[in-house]
Design goal:
Structural class of chain A: mainly alpha
Oligomer: homodimer
Helix content of chain A: over 70%
CATH topology of the domain at 62-187 in chain A: Tetracycline Repressor, domain 2
Order of helices and strands of chain A: HHHHHHHHH
Shape of chain A: elongated
CATH architecture of the domain at 62-187 in chain A: Orthogonal Bundle
Number of strands of chain A: 0
Strand content of chain A: under 5%
Number of helices of chain A: 9
Largest sheet of chain A: none
CATH class of the domain at 62-187 in chain A: Mainly Alpha
Chain lengths: 197, 197
DNA sequence: CTATAATTAAACAAAATAAGTATAATTTTA
DNA sequence: TAAAATTATACTTATTTTGTTTAATTATAG
């Protein structure tokens, strides 16, 4: 009746997650085999299959972990006593840094896996909910212009992300921090109620 | 009787070589499939197998091409009218740059492929021959100290290569050019007959 | 110390992927 | 426009990967 397996976040589990993440980032998902992850993580195949039904379940849990971390970060920022605009800026920068850190290879392959489409849709929905939540906070605080709709806000955020990772823009602003700041300044100039408008 | 296939270095052939090299450098040899190379190179599988019996034959031809290019470079340098010591310096720098450019992944995997061991041994033997040839030129020109043996010369070169790619040394001398210059200065100080000795 | 849970190692069948070939059709090129 | 080069497709065979089963080993809590 001793239930040690309740150490759900056991050391082996974390080793698999970390190694999987590392290998997926470097080589993409399809190139990496379960056995490879096990060897690199110093874990037997049986242990892997104890925690994950298959490779795609591992992928899901990695992404879920990333999302959770992201939500936690957002919540921390939103609880701070700083201007709303500053909160949004920090959130955006954190998100884009995350995308950069994990690289395109992993995300782009992840998004195209047919079996994962329902999961991806749900993650997306969660993300949108969070964005709307932030948006509503801004509205409530009177920090966002009245005529900006949530849809347009989302649209701006999406394009900010695309532009922030654009290779041409990287040539113009090589430093990521500066690039993102500039993009926020330009794209969100008319969104926030600052002294200037 | 028209023999177009005598375009041995045809455009398709070069595309396969280039794409294969690129993919092997990024992901190593074992992870890359023949079909993947074909797709990326815009070439059908049949064309691939016209030029190469299999993936390892492609690997061989890539390495042979690299070696040939290296030998050509050495011959050019040696034909120039510059001090012997300067020739050796340029050759060493070129070789180490080559190793860096192709990265560890490709070379390390390449060197461990069992089926390629005879080929590797031959390439090695050719390389050693070339080194000895250069050494003998130096001896003939009186540019190398009398008591330096070819074996010791080779030993020094080998360790120069190892040290030039050492991560710890990279922290001390981040710039590769400076690092190699310094190593040559120190390790070969007693090899060349310079005004100072 | 000892029972129990956790992990491993090895062997294995089934599934999936990759290799390599044969054929006919299409495209290039001279 | 005819020969050569290339492709597309379909296919068989080989190899790799998956996921499971089993028994043995290791770690741990009481």
């Amino acid at each position: 009746m001793n239930k040690k397996q309740n150490n759900i976040k056991s050391i082996k589990y974390r080793q698999i997650i970390e190694t999987g993440t590392k290998l997926f980032i470097r080589h993409g998902i399809k190139r990496i085999t379960v056995e490879e992850i096990c060897e690199e993580a110093g874990v037997s195949k049986m242990t892997f299959y104890k925690f994950f039904a298959n490779k795609l379940e591992l992928v899901k849990q990695i992404v879920t972990g990333m999302m959770d971390e992201g939500f936690k970060f957002v919540d921390n920022i939103m609880a701070q006593d700083i201007p709303y605009e500053e909160k949004v800026r920090q959130n955006i920068k954190h998100k884009i840094e995350g995308i950069r850190k994990y690289g395109d290879l992993f995300f782009e392959e992840f998004l195209r896996i047919p079996e994962l489409q329902p999961y991806i849709a749900e993650m997306n929905s969660n993300a949108v909910k969070k964005i709307i939540e932030i948006f509503n906070t801004g509205k409530a605080e009177g920090a966002i212009r009245e005529d900006i709709t949530p849809e347009f806000y989302q649209y701006l955020l999406g394009h900010l992300s695309i532009m922030g990772n654009d290779d041409n823009l990287k040539k113009v602003f090589p430093d990521m921090g500066h690039r993102i700041e500039t993009l926020i300044d330009v794209l969100f100039h008319g969104v926030f109620k600052t002294p200037s408008n």
